[in-house]
Amino acid sequence: MLEQATPLDWAAVDITVPRATAGLPGVAMAGFGQRVADAPAAVEIAMVAHPSVTLLFDLGGGDGLVCGTEGRYVRGSAAVGLLPGEFRAGGPVGACLQIRLGPVAAAAVLGPAAELVGEVASLADVWGRSAAEQAEERLRAAVSWDARFAAAVGLLGRRAEERRERRPPVDPEVEHTWRRTLAGQGCVRVEALAYETGWSRKRLSARFGSQLGITPKRAARLVRFDRAAHLLAAGRPPADVALGCGYADQPHLHRDVREFVGLTPTALAAAPWLAIDDIAWPGGAAGR
Predict the structure, then answer these.
(1) Cβ neighbours, 10 Å, residue 118
(2) CATH number of the domain located at residue range(s) 6-167 in this protein
């Protein structure tokens, strides 16, 4: 993706998280800053799929952040939808604010998530150029990470309120289904979720898909994969992970790992991005 880019050394990265929760349901954030004295000219990161929409704010200078998947790249601040495939980010050394939005929170802030599924888009295309530039300027002008986090909470809250005044972002039944999928770690059957909402499975799948961008069944697979990925990174044997996460057998675990990140379970367990997840996202994925 980047000429002469070096894989990021996480030992040379300062990670900062808010002292308190953002106060917005389904939202998590972390700040990343590389110590310049230790840094190469450009770095590259391979990131693992997780059950959140991601906003990446480029707070550095120079040529800026580059993000992309499957040969499609954008430069500068970006929005990354669910299931972006083999997602990579990189660029010159600098600072970056990453915000994870659970799908319900993403719908509230960004609108229907279906348009972003599997995609990486410029933040200017998602928020509008003027709004995106103003957000970047405000975040860059903040004198500390605490100030940046507070500014980000304000930006997200205002956008959610503006959209809510026009129409509710998702049906209560859709939100319930997502919350239950998270709480059940992806193991609650869609038939049971449909029964709880009073809808047919067909209607639930259609409404869930139109508002969050993926079907309830695929959402459950992504949530279950996310849990499995972290257990693998913690050193658990694949056979134990498959059993503990509710897979029918180990080949089904292999199938999901291959589909979501294009790796084997052994390779996924060594993914550097997962190694810092407990530091950057101590509460787990957004929306949990």
Answers:
(1) 15
(2) 2.60.120.10
172 three-class SS: helix
Separation between Cα atoms, residue 75 and residue 58, nearest integer Å: 9
Are the CB atoms for 194 and 170 separated by under 8 Å?
A: no
SS3 147: helix
Cα dihedral sign, 250-256-259-262: negative
Q: Is-contact 26 60, C-beta < 8 A?
A: no
- The pLDDT profile of the chain, 288 residues, written as one tens digit per residue, is 455 556 666 677 788 888 776 577 889 999 988 776 655 556 677 778 889 999 999 887 645 677 777 767 788 898 988 876 677 777 766 788 999 999 999 998 988 776 788 888 899 999 989 999 999 999 999 999 999 999 999 999 999 888 887 777 799 999 999 999 999 999 999 999 999 999 999 999 999 999 998 999 999 999 999 999 999 988 999 999 999 999 999 999 999 999 888 888 988 888 777 766 776 777 665 554
55: left (phi over 0), alpha (psi -120 to 50) or beta: beta
Instruction: Give the domain 172-275 fold.
Output: Arc Repressor Mutant, subunit A (1.10.10)
At residue 258, what are phi and psi to the nearest 5 degrees? -65, -40
Count the Cβ atoms, other than its own, within 10 Å of residue 283: 11
Query: pTM of the full predicted structure?
Result: 0.88
